[in-house]
């Protein structure tokens, strides 16, 4: 059974930091592309950051580039999202997502790194609240 379990969310003041973690199980983590998405109330879900195998290149949305950092620890089957200088507009439910090889079509990297349709498995989401 595939599982993605997020942790590390919560309430933080604007300008503060949080680190989200996502522990994965049930698939070959090191071969899989991993990403973070978010969804604010009344908004569509949007891609935030991705880290793609095999070279683990990283990708960021314009909204978070320079403030957020994605990383992964294959020994722990965990992907992280370090969020610095948080803004009220970063408040959302954050989702961890996995694109596991051979489950769906191959997409590659670049412009499709944050394409929602490529990701086969999703976590339950975790709330991040940023007070102004």
Quick tags:
single chain, 132 residues, mainly beta, 7-stranded mixed β-sheet, 4-stranded antiparallel β-sheet
Question: Could you please describe the fold and organization of this structure?
Answer:
With 132 residues, the chain is mainly β. It has strands at 3-7, 10-13, 18-25, 33-39, 46-52, 57-60, 68-73, 78-83, 92-99, 121-122, 126-131. Helix content is 0%, strand content 48%. Strands 2, 4, 5, 6, 9, 10 and 11 form a seven-stranded mixed beta sheet that branches. Strands 1-3-8-7 form a four-stranded antiparallel beta sheet, with no helix packed on it. It is globular, with a radius of gyration of 14 Å. The model has no long low-confidence stretch (mean pLDDT 96).
- Separation, N- and C-terminal Cα atoms: 40 Å
Q: What is the overall number of helices?
A: 0
The biggest beta sheet reads: 7 strands, mixed
Count of extended strands: 11
Which structural class is indicated by helix and strand composition? mainly beta
Helix content: under 10%
Arithmetic mean of pLDDT:
96
Proportion in β-strands: over 45%
What is the 3D shape? globular
Q: Name the helix and strand elements from N-terminus to C-terminus, one letter apiece.
A: EEEEEEEEEEE
Radius of gyration: 14 Å
Spans with pLDDT under 50 lasting ≥5 residues?
Answer: none
Concise account of the structure shown:
The protein is an all-beta fold and 132 residues long. The protein is 0% helix and 48% strand. The chain starts with a strand and ends with a strand.
